[in-house]
Amino acid sequence: MPSPPALTAPAGSTITVRLPADFTAFCQLHHPTYLHYTHLRVTCAPQAERLVEAALGDLATIWPQALASPNTPAAAWHLLTTRVNQLQRTTPAPRSDPLHTLLPHPEADAALLCGIIGLTPTHSADITGSTPATVTGLLTAFHRRLTTPTGTQLRARWHHLNTHPLRRRTPTVCPS
Question: Of 30, 52, 54, nearest to 40 (Cα)?
């Protein structure tokens, strides 16, 4: 079957895409935290940026439905974490995400957002579409796990994360 003819834009022409103002505002509000969270999960800065861009692109395609849903932040958070989790499952490289290998994902997310990034439970709830009480409960469960005798590996990984350069928002580059 012959390939379709190539389409070329006239010289000097541009295409302008107008996004809804509420979508743009949502992205501006959530992008910094999404990017920091994703850097912590994958450590490769360009890869983290691509994941966040892709998740926000996914959100753009369903924006009217997400906005009409009972919880727009939860829909957006689901798109982001689905992409990150999928990458974590399919990447043969060593996992850079030590908490998500040991904990239920919502608990690990709360620990990263509040304990490493420094969000309050209320801000974390706003980002994830949860409630402050739920985030506080997840943090309580996490801290309980840290103090158990079987929490040695978790404590070591938590200590590593607390001393990690990404805690200070310093992105790393991908290995060659």
Answer: 52
Q: What is the pTM of this model?
A: 0.83
**Cα distance from N-terminal residue to C-terminal residue, the chain:** 39
- Note the pLDDT tens digit of each residue in 6-40: 556 567 778 777 888 999 999 999 999 999 999 99
Q: What is the pLDDT of residues 125-140, one digit of tens each?
A: 999 999 999 999 999 9
**Looking at this protein, which amino acid is placed at residue 89?**
R
